[in-house]
Structure formats: structure tokens, C-alpha cells
Design brief:
It contains eight helices and five strands; from the N terminus they run H-E-H-H-H-E-H-E-H-E-E-H-H. It has 171 residues and is of the alpha/beta class.
Length: 171
């Protein structure tokens, strides 16, 4: 089995057109894999399929990147800021999709700075600051470790309030 068939990744990058990255796999699906119509509907991208990506919004580019990651139905997904540029409706649809994939046994690794999103989607959370893991566990465990009521407050306390230099915005 080729590793690229087992791993789907989303890193927002400039794309030339939908057709080379997505449409080939959508037109020639493998048995048991996600089909074109289902993926286009899930990501609300039917109108994007025949367009060149030049001029795509950030949200449209993210939908194409998600389709590229999901089209071959990988067992593992790595998503970097997957809701970046998505509108509220698309973000909610993506969350439902990710929860469905998780419930179907997929391993999903998400990098995000949006703690509400992390709390809704993650079973296990790792907080990394200055290249080091400063917390690891469930949202409840991390809130308890930090002594805070919200995951966002816990993130700030654990990642930035440890005596290390702060960002210019915090000074």
C-alpha cells in the first residue's frame, strides 16, 4: 500500500486548478472510496469543479485542499487550520464531517489556534509552545492542569504565562 493512499493532508497552498488535484480521482473512483458527488456535496463545492483556481477565495482553496485530502478515503488525516477562510455554514459542515470520520475510526490530527474548535473536535489535545509540549490530555484535564474554566484561558496560561517573553501584542 502506498503511504499517500493511507494519509490525507491539508496545508493551504496555491493550486493551479481543481481538475488535476481532485477531478481525476473523482472521475475514476476506486471501489469503496468516496465518490465525486458525495464529496462535492459534503464540501459544498459543486460550482467549483469546472473552474480554474486562479481567483479562488481562501475558503474555496481550502475546500479544494480538503477534497484532495479526502478523495482517496485515507485512514489518517493531518489538517492544518482546516477552517481557515471557511464561512460559518462550511465550518459547521466540516466539523460534522470530521466527527463522522472520527466515529468511522479515522485518525485525525488537527493543528489549530481556535480553542473552541479544538474543544469540539479533539479527544486528545497537545499544546506546544516554543517547540516544547507544555500540556497533553483531554480538554478537561488541560483546564484542570491550568486551573481555568475555559480551554482558551488554559492555552494562554500554559503556553504564554510561564515567564517566557510574550508577543508584542501582549506587552
Amino acid at each position: 500500500v502506498r503511504p499517500t493512499r493511507r494519509l490525507g493532508t491539508v496545508v493551504l497552498d496555491p493550486l493551479r486548478s481543481v481538475t488535476p488535484q481532485v477531478l481525476r480521482a473523482m472521475l475514476f473512483p476506486e471501489p469503496g472510496k468516496i465518490d465525486r458527488a458525495m464529496l462535492a456535496e459534503l464540501l459544498d463545492m459543486e460550482l467549483l469543479l469546472d473552474r480554474r483556481t486562479e481567483g479562488f477565495s481562501t475558503g474555496e482553496r481550502m475546500k479544494v485542499a480538503l477534497a484532495r485530502a479526502l478523495i482517496h478515503d485515507p485512514q489518517h488525516l493531518i489538517l492544518d487550520e482546516p477552517t481557515s477562510g471557511l464561512d460559518v455554514v462550511s465550518t459547521r459542515a466540516l466539523r460534522r464531517l470530521l466527527l463522522h470520520l472520527r466515529d468511522a475510526g479515522k485518525c485525525i490530527v488537527i493543528s489549530s489556534h481556535i480553542m473552541q474548535e479544538v474543544e469540539q473536535l479533539a479527544d486528545e489535545i497537545v499544546i506546544v509552545a516554543r517547540g516544547h509540549t507544555v500540556a497533553h490530555g483531554s480538554a478537561d484535564a488541560i483546564r484542570a492542569q491550568a486551573g481555568t474554566a475555559s480551554l482558551e484561558d488554559a492555552f494562554v496560561r500554559l503556553a504564554y504565562e510561564s515567564g517566557e517573553p510574550r508577543s508584542e501584542l501582549e506587552q
